[in-house]
User: Fold this.
Amino acid sequence: MSEQTPPIEAEDAAWASLNTPLSVAELREFCADTERLFRINPMLEFNKWQALGNNHYLVAGRNISQDPPFDFEHELHVSITEEGIEVSYSAGVKTSTLFRVEPAPQGSRLTIVDRYDGIGEDVRKKRLAEVDRSLVVWANYLQKFLLMWQRWSGHGWWRWYMRRVWQPMKPSARRITYMLLWISVVEITLIVLGAAIYFVEYS
Assistant:
């Protein structure tokens, strides 16, 4: 992941870039699922994601990238552009998020650009506690998810689990489920090992 080269000429923006193994066309198709993009962010806990129309959503939840966390509720308007996918917000300090898709030597590059130019600088300074500080973490998680997507998305059972089970979970529930699964794997491994030792000793 890289944040070295500014993708836009704007002071009121933050960005993070990541390389992906997908082709440009595959990455654009992946980014077309806006809800999935946002739910991959482990700093956002959604209580509501409601479709209001074509590429228009009402969302509500909590952003835990700040301490203390802050609640949000706003409408999202999604536009498909030549650069990629752009999401505008009806409220909050953030104006829009652009998911820019570009070719890269070994696949493609995704750059996430958060813009904060919709309100004046004085107002932004007073509302720093509402700034989304999850951008770098989000990019890291997106990169990991896209690597898994490249490897496993050809399996129907995996796509079903990720969409129907994993995606609606809150990040905390995902972490708990992950730990429980590993505990179960360890327990099963110990049981199998114990059974193997028993049969070796007494057979």
Q: What stands out?
A: The chain has two domains: 13-153, 169-203. The beta strands are 13-20, 44-53, 56-63, 70-80, 84-89, 96-104, 107-115. The chain has a mean pLDDT of 85. The two ends are 55 Å apart (CA to CA).
